[in-house]
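COMPLEX REQUEST
Ligand: magnesium ion
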Amino acid sequence: MTTTTATRAALLVLADGRFPAGGHAHSGGAEAAIAAGRVSDPASLEAFCRGRLGTAGLVAAALAAAAAAGANPLLLDEAADARTPSPALRMTARKLGRQMMRAARACWPSPALDALAAARPRGAHQPVVLGLAAAAAGLGPLDAAHAAAYEAVSGPATAAVRLLSLDPFDATAVLARLAPELDRVAELAVAAAESALDDLDALPAASAPLLEIAAEAHAAWPVRLFAS
Amino acid sequence: MHLDHPETYPQRYAAAPSRQRRAPTPSSAPTTRPDGTRRALRIGLGGPVGSGKTATVAAICRQLREELSIAVVTNDIYTREDAEFLLRNAVLPAERISAVETGACPHTAIRDDISANLEAVEDLEESVGPLDLVLVESGGDNLTATFSKGLVDAQIFVIDVAGGDKIPRKGGPGVSTADLLVVNKTDLAPLVGADLEVMARDARAQRGELPVTFTALTEPDGIAPVVAWVRERLACWTAAA
Amino acid sequence: MTAVAPAPAASCGVRAAARIVAAPDGRGGTALPVLHGEGPLVPRRTRAARADTAQVTVVGAMSAPLGGDHLRLDARVLPGARLAVGSAAATVSLPGRDGARARYDVRLAVDEGAELRWLPEPLIAAAGSDLAMTTRVELAEGARLVLREELVLGRAGERPGRLVSRLTVRRGGRALLDQEVALGPGVPGWSGPAVLDRYRAMGQLLIADPWFEEHAPGVVALASDPAEGEAVLTPLAGPAVLVTALGRDALTVRRLLNAGQRAAAPPAG
Ligand SMILES: Nc1nc2c(ncn2[C@@H]2O[C@H](COP(=O)(O)OP(=O)(O)O)[C@@H](O)[C@H]2O)c(=O)[nH]1
Ligand SMILES: [Mg+2]
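STATUS: Structure written out below.
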């Protein structure tokens, strides 16, 4: 379950913030946390990202790794639903999954992506699509986990730059400081994904109550800059 | 100077002069629906905030909604503001208007990552289609914002005289390459001291043979030249089927 | 699993198991053919609010769980029976002598046409404690469940202990809800703005009922003073709703969960 150097560049394409899969319009809960005054500077952004990484990020990374390792994507999609009590976040995950599907099929056409697109025309949970995309690109479960974990923190960091006019160097330094934790989360995710091939309950279910509560409040705002 | 009659330059299909940056833009998006029929023509509307994009969308819809099946996708800076305006004014039924959220960057959503917009267009086709025309409005940001060819088949760039008569001279991708440049609010020209003649000359210098039209949407049928242009595009679109 | 470092293996703690089986008594009520406990877990039949329901109160005979303890509680509600389970007092997780993690595993099964109301008092993670709790529920498609979990980080004025609690609910064999909260020292970001922030108590109330298939509720923001607590009621992907509440203390959380229950509850059947 390791990256072959021959495909490493594909991971850069997949994890690029400019990969056209809709991520730019989502703050990963940062907009709500900023409005609540919970995130206001690089330190609180880092704490936010650390909490999101260890919860939603870990779950996403494990789902992506399991999908890349060949677990049944429809069962993973169901497991993702059970791990997402907030309907706003389930909808966001499916919306982003559909957008990721479009970009992935254009970049790395594959029967597995086609099959999931046909089975879930309104979108499967994004990490599941991400995992299949990684596999289609010749990447392994660890790559998929890294991409998902990184996305869990890069989205909020970018949003904080836009919403707080945070110094972009500070925001990027937050991501750099989190790098060792990202690696660890990706490794945990892969280990869980391997067990999940036998028993889906082995997938992590780490939850962040404030993210769930705030996501519903945010979805009801009449005016907001980010979709989530 | 005040132009009584908005001007268009329908000779846009003439051979491009050297200043013209590109011929009318064919979209790179598939031109058929999943069932093989030709999909709706998609026209993007960009331009600075407040120049009259939403007003233009509203006026086009009012003129054409009886004869065509139309839907609108808005890309707001603040969610749904434009969509709410169109709804409040009953320009189209609610199910024909879809608002895409852009994370404070409409230009990203219409140019760099068009996935959410494509989904919105396809969802509209699915729920109220078949459609003849989809108008995609960008929440205005700056003069550099243009639509991706993967999203729209043609784009209109709307500026206004109140923004200053220097805008056409400054150029930028919107002003110089849009398939139609609309200079709106000519009714305000005397008030803001904008010289329409200068604007027309500068626009021509930037755009070569690409058409420019001057509008005052406050006047009855002020949208007429834009509607004429849209009809022409539609005719080409259907003819190409 | 979480991003928490593994604790030393449980060593010399107490092992105790309790077991409850509820079955229709044939006269419109519910009997308890199995009601067994040991050590710190003693289930007793107590007065029920309704004649058709068997009420059980788990009495904590000792302070439990301590680090190194391994407690297990099994309850099964047979087809058509109605069981309500509560506890006499809050459960306090305390540190053991050798820093070992304590485990508390709850296994619940609710059969066709049966109902379980699982409403224990809060679980309090005292300073220095380390508890891993798992609750697994198997619901038949026609089963009804009300399940409450309340977690409090530290006794009054005390530093928090560590608490990892996983709640897995399956309905008709399919995943309905799977949530793990990991809180306290050593858990990355737990007191940060994505997880608990300044709150030190959280609660979840799950209501699963086939009734929701036809009466899907919407999201309800349970208005509250954000300085005290906040909560939301959300419909799950299956016929169930979850109330998630955060508060500065257990009382606030209980108040929010009760509000959520009133907002969502299907008619008493
Ligand atoms: N005077 C005048 N006002 C106009 C004209 N067109 C639009 N407006 C007004 O300009 C404002 C901004 O228009 P809007 O369509 O919302 O701009 P957008 O931000 O480009 O969508 C509104 O108050 C319109 O009523 C026009 O031709 N003349
Ligand atoms: Mg507008």
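REMARKS: The first strand of chain C starts at residue 15 and ends at 24. Chain C has one domain: 15-208.
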